[in-house]
Amino acid sequence: MDYNNIKNFDELIELEHGKIGTESRNDYEERAQMFIVSEMLKEARLQANMTQEELALRAGTKKSYISKIENAKGNIQLSTLIRIFEKGLNRKVGLTFL
Fold it and tell me: CA 20 to 30 Å from 23, out of 17, 45, 78, 87?
């Protein structure tokens, strides 16, 4: 790959993962979003001074599910993610569609 002519981050992403709408770019975008969600959950849980087990108990799910999310593995149901943040962490969730 030729990085010499890269002028911004968008060009770098396109060079490494393809144009928007391609399968490789969609896969990258999905993994990036999953990473962001995992880090947000981990940070919120640590700020609340809770273990994964405590959070799971409050949110009505399993520790293994919390761990999966925090490690950006597997699929997440939106309703469960909202319940984890709202019931488990007492945080409001807002969605933005672009």
Answer: 78
User: What is the distance in angstroms between the CA of the first residue and the CA of the last residue of the chain?
Assistant: 30
The closest alpha carbon to 76, from 65, 89, 92, belongs to 65
79, with CB counted inside 10 A (0-12, 13-18, 19+), is: exposed
Task: List % helix, strand, coil for the chain (3-state, nearest 5).
Answer: 65, 0, 35
Q: What domains can be seen in the chain, in order of their start residue?
A: 9-89 (1.10.260.40)
pLDDT in tens, the chain (98 residues): 889 989 999 999 999 999 999 999 999 999 999 999 999 999 999 999 999 999 999 999 999 999 999 999 978 899 999 999 999 999 999 988 87
Distance CA 45, CA 68 (A): 14
